[in-house]
Amino acid sequence: MTQNTNPARGMRDFLPADIRRREYVISIIKDVYQKYGFEPLETPAVENIETLMGKYGEEGNQLIFKILKRGEGAATGEADLALRYDLTVPTARVVAQYKDKLPKFFKRYQIQPVWRADRPARGRYREFYQCDVDVFGTKSLVVEAELCAAVCEVLERLGFNDFTIKLNHRKILAGILNVAGIAEEKQTDALIALDKLDKIGWEGVFKEFDARSINKGSAEKLFEFFEKIDEIHNAKRFDDKDFPAQTKNATICNRLNEFLKMDETGQEGLKELTAILLNTERISVDNYLKIDPSLARGLSYYTGAIVEINVPDLAGSICGGGRYDNLIGMFSGEEIPACGFSLGLERIILVMTERGMFPEHLTRSPADVLVTIWNEETFADSLELANELRAQGLRVSVYPEADKLGKQLKYAASIGVSAVAIIGDDERADNTVTIKYLETGAQETIARDKLATDLRI
Question: Cα(54)–Cα(56) distance, rounded to whole angstroms?
Answer without folding.
Answer: 6
